């Protein structure tokens, strides 16, 4: 676990940033609608975009939490399909990755 202690701290920082972002998005979506009909339409469109961003943030939060759990269990950095190590470069780019490059390209995943 000590090998990935710095990664764990980085993931915790990422989790805090994502939580902050999600809180702001949730607050913005809860804003009351304007009285002007045209402005309401614009606000509704913006809320749809914010909802999508919120869903993406929730997904990323879950992936980060799972990565932290894998570090704590000593399973971090291993591909969940083939069991081989995930390259350090890939983990640096996507620290919550669950698949090695080979398996990710085979399943077309972004993980």
From TrEMBL:
**PROSITE patterns, A to Z:** ZF_DKSA_2
Query: What are the DnaK suppressor protein-like N-terminal domain coordinates in residue numbering?
Result: 11-71
Signal peptide annotation = none
**Gene3D superfamilies in UniProt:** DksA, coiled-coil domain
Keyword field = Metal-binding, Zinc, Zinc-finger
SUPFAM superfamilies named among the record's database cross-references: DnaK suppressor protein DksA, alpha-hairpin domain, Glucocorticoid receptor-like (DNA-binding domain)
ZnF regions (dksA C4-type) run across 79-103
GO MF annotation terms: zinc ion binding
Question: Where does the Zinc finger DksA/TraR C4-type domain start and stop, copy by copy?
Answer: 74-105
Query: Which PANTHER family does the record cross-reference, listed alphabetically?
Result: GENERAL STRESS PROTEIN 16O (PTHR33823:SF4), RNA POLYMERASE-BINDING TRANSCRIPTION FACTOR DKSA-RELATED (PTHR33823)
Q: What is this protein called?
A: TraR/DksA family transcriptional regulator
Query: What is the native source organism of this protein?
Result: Candidatus Methylobacter titanis
């Amino acid at each position: 676990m000590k090998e990935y202690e710095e990664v764990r701290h980085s993931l915790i920082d990422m989790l805090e940033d994502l939580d902050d972002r999600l809180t702001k998005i949730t607050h913005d979506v809860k804003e009351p609608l304007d009285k002007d009909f045209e402005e309401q339409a614009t606000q509704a469109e913006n809320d749809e975009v914010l909802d999508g961003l919120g869903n993406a943030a929730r997904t990323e939060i879950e992936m980060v939490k799972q990565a932290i759990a894998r570090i704590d269990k000593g399973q971090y950095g291993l591909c969940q399909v083939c069991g081989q190590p995930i390259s350090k470069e890939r983990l640096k780019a996507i620290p919550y990755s669950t698949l090695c490059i080979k398996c990710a390209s085979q399943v077309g995943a972004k993980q």
